[in-house]
Amino acid sequence: MPSVTMKVNGKEVTAEVEPRTLLVEFLRQNLALTGTHVGCDTSQCGACVVLVDGNSVKSCTMLAMQADGDEVTTIEGLANGDLHPVQAAFKEHHGLQCGFCTPGMVMSAVDLLSKNAKPSESEIRHWLEGNFCRCTGYHNIVKAIQSAAERMSA
Amino acid sequence: MPDSGIGASVTRKEDKRFLTGRGRYTDDLNRPGQAIAYFLRSPVAHAVIKSIDTSAAEAAPGVVAVFTGKDMETDGVGSLPCGWVVKDKHGEPHKAPPHFPLVRDKVRYVGDHVAMVIAETLAQAKDAAELIEVDYDEQPPVIDAAGAMQGALLHDEAPSNLCYDWELGDEAAVDDALSKAAHVVKLDIVNNRLIPNAIEPRAAIAEFSPAHDSYELFSTSQNPHLLKLILCAFVLGIPETKLRVIAPDVGGGFGSKIYCYAEETACLWASKRLNGRPIKWTAERSESFLADAHGRDHLSSITLGVDADNKFTALKVLTTANLGAYLSNFATCIPTYLYATLLAGQYITPVIYCNVKAVFTSTAPVDAYRGAGRPEATYVVERIVEVAARQLGVDPAELRRKNFIQPDQFPYQTPVALTYDVGDYEPALDQALKMIDYSGFPQRRAESEARGKLRGIGFSAYIEACGIAPSAVVGALGAGVGLWESAQVRMKATGSVMVMTGSHAHGQGHETTFSQVVSDYLGIPYEHVEIVHGDTGQVPMAMGTYGSRSLAVGGSAIIKACDKIIEKGRKIAAHMLEADVGDVEFKDGNYTVSGTDRSKSIGEVAFAAYVPHDYPEGVEPGLDETAFYDPLNFTYPAGVHIAEVEIDPDTGVTTIVDWVAVDDFGKVINPMIVEGQVHGGIAQGVGQALLENCAYDENGQLMTGSYMDYTMPRADNLPSFKVDMTESPCTHNPLGVKGCGEAGAIAAPAALMNAITDALGQEIDMPASTEKVWRVCQSRRMAAE
Hints:
The structure holds two protein chains of two kinds.
Chain A: E1 3-8, E2 11-16, H1 23-30, E3 49-52, E4 55-58, E5 71-73, H2 85-92, H3 102-115, H4 121-127, H5 139-153
Parallel strand pairs in A: 1-5
Antiparallel strand pairs in A: 1-2, 3-4, 3-5
Chain B: H1 15-19, E1 35-41, E2 47-53, H2 55-58, E3 63-68, H3 69-74, E4 106-107, E5 113-119, H4 122-129, E6 133-138, E7 162-168, H5 171-180, E8 183-191, E9 203-209, E10 214-219, H6 224-236, E11 243-246, H7 262-273, E12 279-282, H8 285-291, E13 298-306, E14 312-324, E15 351-360, H9 374-392, H10 396-403, E16 412-413, E17 419-420, H11 425-435, H12 441-450, E18 454-463, H13 471-476, E19 485-491, E20 497-501, H14 510-522, E21 529-532, H15 550-577, E22 584-587, E23 590-593, E24 599-601, H16 602-610, E25 624-629, E26 638-648, E27 653-664, H17 671-691, E28 722-726, H18 743-760, H19 770-784
Parallel strand pairs in B: 1-12, 10-11, 14-15, 20-21, 27-28
Antiparallel strand pairs in B: 1-5, 2-4, 2-6, 3-5, 7-15, 8-13, 9-10, 9-12, 13-14, 16-17, 18-26, 19-20, 19-25, 22-23, 23-24, 26-27
Helix pairs in contact in B: 9-18, 14-15, 15-16, 17-18
């Protein structure tokens, strides 16, 4: 089996994988980073979003081999100890209920704020098209992201 | 405003683990030596199985075993039961054909379970499944509920594919009243079939221990105790003491995770067949679409009688309900006792009659989905009332107001069996009208028209029956279980508290809300309360989460257990304080001798209970109490939602420009969490009305089998919502609470469809898709030209 090397949450990992192994499978099964979730099989739901070299990526749509040499950040590696401002805002504004879509939603929001520090409500809603939440009706997720944007640009 | 007790918007205890990727969902777990299960599903809607050849699959790399229905039959595995016997209009029980976890001789829907392949890896199991040869003798499928009774026979036990022909109310009296009515308003509606789509797919890990002759099952269940009961008593025939079911963090349910499904049943059975090898199964989303229990799917004809003074005189509803290919656990009660009993709505309608014909079709089983019968009832009532207002030329808000049950009429006996304990409907309507600036609507409509857009406004004054349910009542109506709830409150020697509750949380935030309640009642810090749920090995027998019952029923059980703790503690405190028990008061966590400053904290009392060196005679050590609560009545949350939309006739795009919700949930423990429940419910209701539709083609193939085709509400389909509340506390539970989990999904479809049809000036059925709306706009335009 071919070997793959990448930096995950700041730590270099090398493993032999079947070529068809998806990045999300590699993270969940090889590295036991189960915070990244799988909610669909058509790249629609966004529960598996991680950052690859700083950009949000659906890790169900990328082979582990394709991330060779890349830096991957998962929800587990977003903050050390304390909560990242986006995580804190989700808690403060009740931007999560069952928690299943949450890791992908948070990672997607982090990427948005890195590209657009002060998004409008409609920009946030448009950006989140690729992330499904069945619990919150998105209302409090949008509020949380607006609040995080304010806090991060303050 | 308290900072952590009842009424405070406390941020949630649950959030840290979910926000940092440390939630523990079933698929996150693995057992040493586990094998992976994959199910070969029927590719055809209706066929007799002539033969199954599994030999090539069994010989494939990594395959541990391949099982079919014959193997389960040999082991005496039973049918998945339907737990509610509905008697038809002749008093005969519903038709109950068997529902075997793996089919035995026939498949009845696309997705039905033909064989189970167990292999070392999922890829190997899937590869092997392709090698199974099945000889299907295809039969005509039965797709639409409307034609089901004339279709090919699906079950020998159910002639004409009819499960039951059921009725409620006096048809002759209703027909008489309709014949005398000044106005008769008619409407035919479709309540479209939905697929629940919790974002976490179902999953299970089953493990049999040969050494203990016992089983352990991790499952994505909303009610692990009920799952255990069904598996032990009805399907596998094992003692209840030999199975532990754990539902860890569960990623949403909305009803779809109430039931005992084929997959976890087969995994549990197979683990024993394989001498204790753990078996893991996780649904792919495609399987969730095919084989999770679907929701709704009603066709109804409605007739409303109105007198010369615009008062309702009679309501007649004839419904056909599609139950799918087999009866899921509670399929029978949803279109009957959770539906027709709500047809009075918030109104005084002297006589009501409802007939329901429930039919089998070659589609996935249909059962409770968020609201379960009550959204269907609300859609009937609130659509016909809106249409009546249009036909009579009266304001829809005022027609509702005129017919509301008045505050002094409670308790109010409806003509459809329920007794509403309390309610006050006008304040919610008034508040909602104010919040949406109803008086400004004509001007907003004119502005939209000036821009070439169509604007509409729609109401929904819903009621629901929650806090399910008084056991004696549901027992008399055919339920196979009681619908009480349990709680165990365990004070530790050092003053912290563990609460074992039967109410499972899968997004509702019980760990926070229940901690607030217990902290308030026992006067101990919120941080010192730990909520345990979802484990039959730790929690007393329980009934689980559905029907917005957790706080009204589960919370009441917690209060009862707390009361027992307080009373026992009073005896201990009286001894410590050298006072009569009758003189000791309990308040804010302290026992005090009346009229003195002599007191002991509940923590000191707990310590004495576990270190009983100097202790009252006749009192047992320990401070650990269990309570069971059986509700005295349903609770009746109610409210008014108003939707305002703007439609672009050139594109058919409907934009929700405003949404107000004013709900009466009785007392509210955590407003932040309650508002979140309202938001989520509205989103699902908007999904039903605007976007979502489960569709099968004429061959019974699911056309909406992925997120590419089944349109989920996304962030940019929805507005921010304006939410407010009124409060008429429930009169028969200790917290005065009613339940809030389903309200939005119940209220929203009617509000949105009333707004859209107001804008269009024409009736259409759900979902009001862009294409459907555009076609109406085009035909209107062509008619005008």
